[in-house]
Specification:
Blueprint (H helix, E strand, L loop, with lengths): L2 H15 L4 H27 L13 E6 L5 E8 L3 E5 L11 E8 L5 E13 L2 E7 L5
Antiparallel strand pairs: 1-2, 1-4, 2-3, 3-6, 4-5, 5-6
Helix pairs in contact: 1-2
């Protein structure tokens, strides 16, 4: 993931964890969402040209998916890679592109290692969502 996208996501996390006036928070959040949309579109363009950074494996894995402040939901993957996964969910249109989610699963690519990941929704289709993993390092 490009350095600037990581910084935007870190800023988003900081803003969510601090109390800011609602109007200021909204303006900053909108700016971050617009910037993330450009980055996500770039990643999507790479995916549609089949220029993936990480090869996909068609593996079904149960995942605890957490979206916003909702309790987690158990869902299944259609495929998984080192960089993300496709998650089968319905209705998929309730998950907007650009939103952040958390996933918890036993990673079959790493000997079923117990894995927690932050991810951004990069694509929404009728039967599910594609997410790209995000590594959030400290500032």
């Amino acid at each position: 993931m490009p350095e600037h996208s990581i910084k935007l996501l870190k800023l988003h996390a900081i803003l969510l964890n601090n109390l800011l006036p609602a109007r200021l928070f909204f303006c900053i959040k909108q700016s971050i969402i617009q910037s993330m949309t450009v980055i996500i579109q770039h990643d999507y363009d790479l995916m549609t040209k089949n220029q993936r950074r990480h090869p996909r494996k068609e593996i079904k894995v149960s995942v605890e998916l957490t979206f916003l402040e909702q309790p987690y939901t158990i869902v299944n993957t259609r495929d998984i890679s080192e960089g993300g996964m496709f998650i089968e969910v319905k209705p998929a249109d309730s998950f907007p592109v650009g939103e952040l989610v958390n996933v918890h699963y036993l990673n079959p690519l790493k000997d079923n290692e117990d894995t927690f990941k932050d991810a951004a929704i990069v694509r929404v289709v009728e039967d599910g969502i594609a997410v790209s993993f995000i590594e959030m390092a400290e500032f």
